[in-house]
Design a protein that fits this description.
The complex is a heterodimer.
Chain A: E1 3-14, E2 19-30, E3 34-38, H1 45-52, E4 60-65, E5 68-69, H2 75-82, E6 85-88, H3 100-104, H4 106-111, H5 115-128, H6 144-156, E7 162-166, H7 174-191, E8 194-198, E9 211-216, E10 219-223
Parallel strand pairs in A: 3-8, 3-9, 6-7, 7-8
Antiparallel strand pairs in A: 1-2, 1-4, 4-5, 9-10
Helix pairs in contact in A: 5-6, 6-7
Chain B: H1 3-32, E1 36-40, H2 46-52, E2 56-62, H3 64-71, H4 77-86, E3 89-95, H5 101-112, E4 117-121, H6 124-176, H7 181-184, H8 186-218, H9 221-225, H10 227-230, H11 234-257
Antiparallel strand pairs in B: 1-3, 1-4, 2-3
Classes of the chains: A alpha/beta, B alpha+beta.
């Protein structure tokens, strides 16, 4: 299987002072893998995730995602890459003035799909995340767990190559968290999507031996 | 509402256009109504005067016979002929532009340096008072227009902050999912362009009303005389172009300052 993500001697710095957060990291993630990245607060988990969707450029080394080296990628190529990614945030990042349906089909809208396809996909995805009757509601009318399910539906909308999730259950209760983990696990197993989850603690519901990296003392190490 | 500051800027622009047109007309009137008087020993033509100073645009010879007939009433015909022969030549000299007193003095100096020219009269004092009044009005109106532009600019900056606040979240989320710049700023451009068109139409409407209704009904001489200068159809193009340019600058500023994901 080919690598979807490959980091080689990756160094990431952050902030105006150029604080080194990750140093000389080397790791690869293959297509269809479900991977956890854990570490204590401030260890650089979210910084690594930002680098993976191109928000932060590597200061040294290489970071290749979907075949593109993000250390010297053009803005246009980066935009193109992001249309093949599903990104889930702890604070959901839904557009509050849009309906749930419009939020879900955002990746399809960006890709230029016609409204008929968008409607069909929105219905299917909202049914999948168990929110079939919430299409015309607005995000602020939903609970935190429901908003994150909308976030997951949006991430799945265009059958992404990779899903990046930053503490996706950080603000949720146990029940809602389990629903989110189920959805992400299904996406990985059924759609062969690579899922990379950044979290401070691996949830106990996972029985399968997924790969696990830990960030410690600026290094990224695989836990066996 | 972006339409209000945009209208204020457009009103400033239109005021400036109207002001320039009316003052140009007035300036032209002053210029055309102003003549210097030159007294020469021998006849001179325009090119000879222009060789002495380039600002001279016309040289009209005053008929000496009419001067003699005025000053030599009751004098015999032979005496009149002698007076006529002894009289110098008189010229009304027109200028190509409206000059300051120092400019007039320079012309006088240039002309009097020629041995053929006996005397030059500039009528500087009446010219000067007209010029000062005109310059003062021009200055006050320009200050007013600049003040309007500055206030409008502040209103536009304020509106840009409101836009930034209202659209930032959506644009950032769209950016994360790979939306190109035009797609993420599309709604903002749509809103801003509608405001640009409406503000252009409203300002044009106001000046159209002033030109065709208010100016006539007011009975104010200067308004009636300058009715044509109050609004021209070409102004609609200038106003629309200006408002679209302002909109593009404002929207791009908001879009680029909203780039990046909230930390």
């Amino acid at each position: 299987m080919s690598n979807v993500i490959h980091a080689s001697h990756l160094t990431l710095t952050y902030g105006n002072a150029g604080k080194e957060v990750i140093k000389d990291a080397n790791f690869s993630i293959k297509k269809g893998e479900f991977v956890f990245i854990t570490g204590p607060s401030g260890s650089g988990k979210s910084t690594l995730l930002k680098a993976l969707y191109g928000k932060l450029r590597p200061s040294e080394g290489n970071l290749v995602v979907g075949g593109l080296d993000l250390s010297n990628v053009s803005q246009r190529k980066l935009q193109e890459l992001r249309t093949h990614m599903g990104i889930i945030f702890q604070d959901y990042k839904l557009v509050n003035e849009w309906t749930v349906k419009k939020n879900v089909v955002l990746p399809l809208m960006i890709a230029g799909y016609d409204s008929e396809i968008q409607d069909t996909q929105a219905r299917r995805l909202l049914k999948h995340v168990k929110l079939p009757d919430h299409a015309d509601k607005f995000p602020l009318e939903l609970s935190g767990g429901e908003q994150q399910r909308v976030g997951v539906a949006r991430a799945l909308a265009k059958n992404p190559v990779v899903i990046l999730a930053d503490e996706p259950t950080g603000n949720l209760d146990d029940y809602s968290s389990n629903v989110i983990w189920d959805l992400m696990e299904n996406a990985c197993q059924q759609l062969d999507t690579t899922v990379l989850v950044v979290t401070h603690k691996i949830p106990t519901i996972f029985s399968l031996p997924y790969r696990h990296f830990i960030i410690e003392s600026k290094g990224v190490y695989e836990v066996h | 509402m972006f339409i209000l500051p945009l209208m204020a800027i457009l009103l400033g622009i239109e005021f400036y256009l109207v002001f320039e047109r009316t003052t140009n007309t007035y300036e032209k009137g002053l210029k055309e109504g102003y003549f210097m008087l030159a007294v020469t020993k021998n006849p001179m033509d325009l090119s000879a005067f222009q060789a002495l100073n380039e600002h001279i645009s016309t040289a009209e010879k005053i008929k000496r016979e009419s001067i003699v007939s005025e000053v030599a009433k009751g004098v015999s015909q032979s005496s009149s002929k002698e007076i006529l022969a002894a009289l110098p030549y008189f010229y009304n000299l027109g200028l190509d532009s409206y000059l300051h007193t120092s400019g007039l003095e320079q012309i006088k100096k240039d002309l009097e340096a020629d041995a053929n020219i006996k005397k030059v009269e500039t009528f500087g004092s009446s010219y000067q008072s007209n010029y000062r009044l005109f310059s003062f009005i021009k200055f006050i109106l320009k200050i007013f227009i600049v003040f309007m532009a500055v206030v409008s600019l502040f209103l536009i900056i304020k509106q840009m902050e409101i836009w930034k606040y209202a659209h930032k979240e959506r644009m950032q989320v769209m950016e994360i999912f790979g939306a190109p710049l035009m797609l993420r700023s599309g709604i903002l451009f749509k809103v801003a362009f509608i405001d640009a068109i409406f503000s252009t139409l409203l300002v044009s409407g106001i000046f159209f009303y002033i030109k065709f209704y208010w100016a006539v009904q007011s009975g104010i001489d200067i308004m009636v005389e300058n009715q044509e200068a109050l609004f021209k159809y070409s102004d609609i193009g200038i106003l629309l172009g200006s408002s679209i340019l302002i909109v593009i600058i404002a929207v791009y500023t908001v879009v680029f300052s909203s780039k990046g994901v909230q930390e």
